[in-house]
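JOB MANIFEST
job_type = single_chain_structure
chain_count = 1
residues = 286
[input]
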Amino acid sequence: MKIYPIEAGNFKLDGGAMFGVVPKSIWSRTNPADSNNLIDIAARCMLIENGDRLTLIDNGMGNKQSDKFFGYYYQWGNHSIDASLKKYGFHRDDITDVFMTHLHFDHVGGAIQWNKNHTGYEPAFKNAKFWTNENHWNWAIKPNNREKASFLKENLIPMHESGHLHFIDRGIEEYKANTELNFGILFADGHTEKQMLPHIEIAGKIVVFMADLLPTVGHIPVPYVTGYDTRPLLSIDEKERFLKTAADRNYYLWLEHDAHNELITVQHTDKGVRLKDTYTFNELFN
């Protein structure tokens, strides 16, 4: 098995929204803001090569939305899925599975594209199965008012209509390897209903794809949860339990949204779980 970082494109979000009730004077120490109060955000996806299977975990915003839409997110840098795949010798048509931690647009917008003949939406990975879970799917297609702007119909309905959509078994145990995708999954409900966090065992390490349970290094302190979380008190509880386990077991945490830190480990301290070490992908896997 091999894993690769697939950079789907950097953008910016309001720092206050990303840190909820935490004062700017505190969160800006780890996540400095620009003059518009915006902080750097990544869409660092993961590609897993396992035999004849190529699984892409999350896929960024995509490029099918309007200029007005993208204008809200201040995209920066020159990353793209196609360029990242090419770097490692792959093409999007090689992808066999697209695993979606959850269905917010910044995690799944790249799964569906407007086709080149301008006749409609189609899967951007034409040979892949798209994986979510039924509870989260039902939550997303009938969204609550808080998340309505994050669950976009043009991202979701074409998945179902194309026949590419598949559901993860709801009975799967935490950390137990899924029989088809061959990695463990932890379900978390604080950010959104049944978010899924992959646990990948590779080279004697457990790498956990953190999605929105831990967006950046700055979110390690337990009370630091985003204003986007639908159940912030549950997020706090889920994060606290997970970080204790991560420190105990020396998990390597893959940060999807931290534009400046790729992988980290955490440790127990007198102040609770805190950052231990930061790593680049190349340091650990090349």
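[summary]
The mean pLDDT is 95.
The first strand starts at residue 2 and ends at 7.
exit_status = 0
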